[in-house]
Amino acid sequence: MDSSVTLGRLELGRAAVSPGALLNGPGARERSAHQQQQHTGTRSGPLGCVPLSHQVAGHKYGVDKVGILQHPDGTVLKQLQPPPRGPRELQFYSMVYAKDCCDPCLLELQQHLPKYYSTWSSPDSPTELYLKLEDVTRHFQKPCIMDVKIGQRSYDPFASQEKREQQIRKYPLMEEIGFLLLGMRVYNVGLDSFDTYDQHYGRGLTQDTVKDGLCKFFYNGDRLRRDVVTASIAKVQSILRWFEKQRQLNFYASSLLFVYEGLPSAQDDKSGTQSLQKNEGVLEYNNNIEQSLSNMYSLHKKACMQSHHPSPQDNSAWHGLLMQSDACEQDTTGQLPEVEVRMIDFAHVFPSEVHDHGYIYGLKNLLKVLQEILDD
Q: What's the top EC group for this one (predicted)?
């Protein structure tokens, strides 16, 4: 079925805006126990599911009305948003991953998305519907994660004037820069801990500081991961090629999710990546599907004792620090490291007959900045 016809059947009503959890400060270390409870709560999900421990942006389960959970089988569950956003995203995934899909454009798009495994609901709450999706971080031991919203505007063509003005106020440079850093989580090899940066950090970046801001995602406390930058560029270029060919869909308020392994290759645990990790006394459940449900609840309880605490960080000396770092090129085998770059968040996807110029502009600008990072 033609994607324009399919998506065109969706109701295009006005959606209510769910307030997100506001974090103070531009960037951060791990959060203390009482602060963790304040921001993520201790609410458990249905049937052994737990809030996604390494989520860097978006609605968080137990904080917002909708959020993302981790299922015991290693997938993630994204709770459906209220209409029209939730049904629109469900329709998008159903269309792209339809069993009888024979559209070459959509079949190629699948490689740039998390795998979709249909919907899911708990027998106890059958009306609470979730999208069952691949967890693209599950094969990484210390996943470094970055969420970047792409496009020149983060509101769709059917947004009210009030919604448009609200989104523009959040980040006036979106039209000029073409992307917005929503959050990131970076493994520091020297400290054996994660540094996290929230949405306020990204919105504080300007035309002059956005490169140094993105640099932090590729800096592991010891050196700039140029190999990861190179692999990321290749992935984004592949997505750009798809957008330059297709004229079926336009994407608004959609993001790219970047993931790479934070552990240096020499320290990789060869026994497998489905492991229980310990960072500064914090047990982090990372898709170990062999754990019993009782252990999972225990782990979640302990995980609720710590989170990410934003604290001011100075960008002024950042460029100089990177210039002093070692250049980490390809590994000894000459192969680029495993890097995932996937498109996510499709509550504002609409049929079209023209190129998605806003998204293409954002991708090209992002590639330009990544190349500048690599060339420095």
A: transferase
